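Changelog entry: the Response regulator transcription factor record was regenerated in this release. Current contents:
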Amino acid sequence: MRVLVVEDERVLADAIATGLRREALAVDVAYDGAGALERAGVNEYDVIVLDRDLPKVHGDDVCAELVAKRYPARIIMLTAAGELDDKVEGLSIGADDYLPKPFAFAELIARVRALGRRAAAPLPPVLERAGIALDPARREVLRDGREVELTRKEFAVLEVLLSADGAVVSSEQLLEKAWDEHIDPFTNVVRVTMMTLRKKLGDPPVIETVPGVGYRL
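Regenerated structure tokens:
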């Protein structure tokens, strides 16, 4: 899942991004509304965590513009304006969820994952295929009942493959969903991650390489 965090308080923005990355999510950060719209114009996000009181372009205007353009991401407003009227106003603009500050990070994670499930085709809570079971909420992977320890990136790549439900996923799609905007698109990081992931999942191999196209589980 790819997330955009839009927050002008840089320490808070970076802390949120770091926490989300620890949950095996790909995260980009924008520190103002103009930067948010610029990134959304280039990248496809599943969820946008959006502060309302932003410089350059107000968060409400960012939300309204994305909704007007039918941008596919789900939007959660994260703001100090937490009164009932503020929540009603934020949701009426087009936000999908509203979480006032201060907040519990565990709740933010749960809400981001819930919105991510709504951003795409509905998926079961636990993804299963070819003897592999992946539980995003618990960050747990089992192969034929045996627990498999994965890094955050390996977990994210496996989640993308399982979500494809047997369809081929290209390296470009994996970079889009499992890494952030700072990754070099010409790097071999996908191939290296796939090698270590296959090794950890064990035999018989379950991830197929489709030459010139991508990977399939």
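DSSP finds eight helices and eleven strands in the chain.
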